[in-house]
Write a structure and sequence with these properties.
388 residues; alpha+beta; Dna Ligase, domain 1; Rossmann fold; 3 domains
Length: 388
């Protein structure tokens, strides 16, 4: 779950990180009042859950409250990478001497947290890693020992910080690590961490991604979710307990089990197709959940074929088939027949009963995953109401 910059800063400030005070405004008048309270020059920053705000005109400096209101008016309503700006952060402007990147990321491959830092702050770290990988310093943090003092001290000198700022840097890094662990984050970064002209270190921008799987331990963090900036289909899927991620392809996939879902997407790509989503209905899915999954897929205008790949263990094939039949019947009753081919692979518990239900609904199930993937890719060239 992604959260806004101002929300990430609120979390990090609880761990002692030096963050310039700022407030959120949803209209120019509020921005004017906030800038008046701050006094002096301010920066007005779009609060959207996408990158590239600066290049899109979503970050502007203002010398006084009147200009802050004008800049807020320019930014509010701006569309950045398909997201409309609904609020801005108004914060004190800082006279910057240097910019540093500092981040922690969950490295699932190496089963640890990786600390990354670069003296090339203020830009996308991916670009720095691509152009000059030697400028990105990495530390694999031991999951039992965590961040060690010598690591923060060594990193401070590698980044070229003066000796008198090493202790301050260590406090910032320890606070960032403590916050990362406390909220079960998958990513926490400060970009930039700046050295101001007066020599102090300040966190001017912050980003935190929360691990959805750990939100049950943090009900207070669930309230930070901004549904207005999430894909409506992903919101609907989450409400119904489905694991759904929209992708850029045109073959919609309904699968039970995350591993099978990944394998299904790989096989689709093997035969020349592109998956439109990751959608896991989970083990033991009932008919209602299957029907919901199909409705979510068909609401995506990019989907030109649907591949349903079910290996019934805990999940019963007849329940899946009943859900498909229900969804198709409901669509036809509303005068909205399914306009894309549907390919079904159905194997496992109550398979015979499931095939019978599918046959009555006008669908035929295949048994092989390769066969199903080939059929789904081949079906892209035609668009009958139903294909099996």
């Amino acid at each position: 779950m992604n959260i806004h910059e101002y929300q990430a800063k609120e979390i990090l400030s609880q761990y002692g990180l030096p963050i310039p005070r700022g407030e959120v405004a949803s209209d120019p008048e509020s921005a004017h009042r906030i800038a008046t309270r701050i006094g002096g020059p301010v920066v007005v920053k779009a609060q959207v859950l996408v990158g590239g705000r600066g290049k899109a005109g979503g970050v502007k400096l203002a010398r006084d409250p009147d200009e802050a209101a004008a800049r807020a008016g320019d930014i509010l309503g701006l569309v950045i990478r398909g997201i409309t700006v609904r609020k801005v952060l108004v914060a004190p402007a800082v006279d910057i001497a240097r910019e540093i990147y500092l981040g922690l990321v969950l490295d699932r491959a190496n089963k640890n947290v990786t600390l990354m830092a670069s003296a090339e702050g203020g830009v996308e770290i991916e670009e720095v890693a691509r152009v000059a990988p030697e400028k990105v310093y990495r530390y694999a943090l031991d999951p039992f020992l965590g961040l060690l003092d010598y690591q923060s001290t060594e990193l401070a000198f590698r980044l070229g910080l003066p000796a008198e700022r090493v202790r301050d840097f260590g406090k910032i890094l320890r606070g960032l690590y403590q916050a990362f662990v406390a909220v079960d984050a998958s990513l926490a970064e400060i970009n930039p961490l700046v050295v101001a002209k007066d020599g102090t270190l300040q966190c001017l921008d912050a980003k935190i991604n929360l691990d959805d799987n750990a939100l049950y331990r943090h009900p207070e963090l669930e309230t930070l979710r901004d549904a207005d900036e999430e894909d409506p289909a992903e919101v609907a899927a989450r409400v119904d307990g489905l694991s759904y991620v929209k992708l850029d392809g045109n073959i919609g996939c309904v699968v039970n089990g995350a591993g099978l879902a990944m394998a299904t997407m790989d096989v689709v790509k093997l035969y020349g197709g592109e998956p439109a989503n990751f959608l896991d209905i989970g083990g033991g899915a009932r008919a209602e959940r299957v029907a919901t999954a199909l409705r979510i897929l068909l609401s995506d205008g990019n989907v030109r074929a649907v591949l349903i790949n079910i290996f019934g263990g805990i999940t019963r094939c007849d329940e899946v088939a009943r859900g498909l039949a229900t969804a198709l019947e409901a669509a036809r009753a509303q005068g909205e027949p399914v306009g894309v081919p549907i390919v079904v692979r159905l194997v496992g518990t109550n398979e015979a009963e499931g095939r019978q239900i599918l046959a009555e609904a006008g669908l035929v199930a295949v048994t092989g995953m390769d066969e199903a993937a080939r059929a789904a890719v081949a079906a892209l060239g035609s668009r009958p109401e139903v294909r099996a």
